[in-house]
Amino acid sequence: MTTVSKILENLEKEDGLEVPRLEKSLKLSRKIDRDNLEIAIKALTKLGIVKSIENEKLVINKEIDFVRGRVRCSSKGYCFVVREDEGEDIYIRETNLNNAWHGDSVIVLITKEALKRRAPEGSIQCVLQRYNETLLAKIEKDNANGNLKAYPLDDRIPAIIDVEDGEEIITNLSNKDFIYEIEISKYPIAQFKAIGKIIREFPLNAGVEGDVDILLSKNNISRNIDPPKVSPKKIQLKGREDLTCQPSLLFSSWECKNSPSLPALFAQPYEGGNRIWIHSPSVSERLNIGGKLDKYLMDKGEAICLGNNWLEFLNETLVSASAFKLNEEREAISLMIDIDSKGIVIDWKFSLSIIKPVKEVTDKHLQTINNRKATSKSIPIALKSLKENLEVIYTIIHSSKLINQINNSSIKLDQHIPNLERLSELQKAFPSRDFHGWTKSYDSCDPQSILDIYIRLSNNILAKHLYEYKLPFIFKEHEGIEQSSINELTKSALVLDSDITVKLDGSQSANDLIKSFDSSSEKKILHKLVKHIIPGIHLKLFNHADSINYDELNKKSFISNVESPWCCPSLNYWNIFNQFIISLLLNDGKSKNSSRSKDSVNLGQKDSWKDVSWKIFSSKINEIIEKQANLKLIQHLNDRRKQSKSFRNNIISIAQGREAQKIIGKEVPAIITGVQSYGFFAEINELTSEGLVHVSTLGDDWYEYRSRQNLLIGRKNKKTYQLAQKINVRVLKVDILKNQIDLELIKNEDSDLINNKKMTSENRSDDKE
């Protein structure tokens, strides 16, 4: 399907294109496709987005200040366009949406500039690309004419879709336990509604696999994308460092057969500190960047964990060629890191290598090591197979603890995922991946938690290396937490636990505050509060031009904290892109001033850039890099990250909901985890899932919300419900599709009486005020 986005993309490449050349560029051979292109060009010309110049060439009109962005709607009907240029979001009134849906890529004309605290307003001129090619919906018959109508489950899409040719798929229209996947064949235009057809029927009670299928469809993730029939490139072995004699180890917690391949580690004492090797499977060297296989991986974006299974990122041939296997030689991109006795990096070197992993370290091995007494001379049975590698393992664990203590670039919090078989793979640390702006706390019994420490350090080292060589790279940008949010969190923490040591002068960082929670009995609740104020992470593209205006202080701050992922190319495409840049440097970078020069520079060595005064790459390679490193790639990858994050949230929520369904009507213990004016949220202890006790169900009084104290208080009886309070609740209702659990408070007169006496004296002064 040709989209407006593809048309404009082709017009941007040239200084004008004639229609026949545009048709050829878009590969349009059928008459109907050419006719549709003609209609699209006429519409774009009337809107002023495209104009015709000499010799009937078409160009993008730069005279009108159009803005590109993506539509973001709320369930309450508010719509904004998030700009591609990262400017202020544009408010779109319902009358100016022009049939655009949530997620669509659009062109906007600003109609009213921003005033004081009000956002600018705009009107959507054109939909560049539709986000929803399929969606989940409920089907009903129109009473007037008997035609089928689809009502999207996503309440951010307030549309009614006419359904064609769908009756043969529907098992029983009156059965409310079915939902349907609708493929949009015609999108709404002017007064005409959208038209779609039913492609799949989903029963709501089809077990774990049924839940997974529903959520994949909900998040627009396809199980079956056929890879191109292209074989991976063979890697040249000449010039690679032979490290096959090094007994490198695989650290893995995931147990599924199709789980992604991860880096290998080796460590040994070195000059009072330790020398660590991290070996990454070489994937980028096997790809023709810009080729069919590369575009296939770029489109997929990343590997998706289905809970206890995986939707793989790499195709079978790439996995077979690159994944590390015990006692088998594999090509790698390796990083040697020297750290001192405090865990500070003093030297590093990137190299192309060949390795041969000898053993795999699992969580069972690490649990045995942690339980083993330091003075014990006997080796437990569980560690017999690792007898010759124990010193290496102890060095790796010790070094990871040192590095973890001084690394403050990421926020580390406890991860609370239900201990369910269907979520087994999600319970392990996901190396280098930040789904919510924070990472799982260091766990010396989880191999991937240890591996994560080295991967993040390696990511930071790569960013520093490429920064100094003035090469582009994709990095993770952590949005800053507002100081006002930290101050409010500090106040809430002190209400919960007065023994916490905090600074009240507003100078405390989020990491310092989190460290003060470690000894608190309310650590779990406090960590939940922290998660609510962390903004999140986005991928960004770094180009040398971006750093021209950096002063030394900003430069130092940037390169000391930024992460440029590259070690895990089996997880996502941004790892492949960064690995492509470093492998280009090592493979094709000019290591000496001229072919006659005897002195060469090791381009992978720390500080090697100081000895380079010539151009590293040929003009041809620079063109390849410039073509690949663009904002469109970053926007696409950020969209894929959001899909993956949404799916991850959904798969956990639906598992919790299914467990909650089993205890509907039962009384269970819970703890209040959030208080709002409309009620309070309580976490069911055995499920770690939250439900809402609505204020209307309390019934015995009129309750006021006091935000400073995080509590609800009855006007007459002075009964209170506050953060971290233990209660008993009954599960009333579970909505699987909306991830909502409705709870009812079980009132206990004895506990209420104690609670009243405790709080009365604290609230008298407030009542007087």
TrEMBL record:
This is RNA-binding protein. The keyword Nuclease applies. The keyword Iron does not apply. One of its GO terms (cellular component) is cytosol. Residues 665-746 form the S1 motif domain. It comes from Prochlorococcus marinus XMU1408. It holds the Pfam family S1. It comes from the Bacteria.
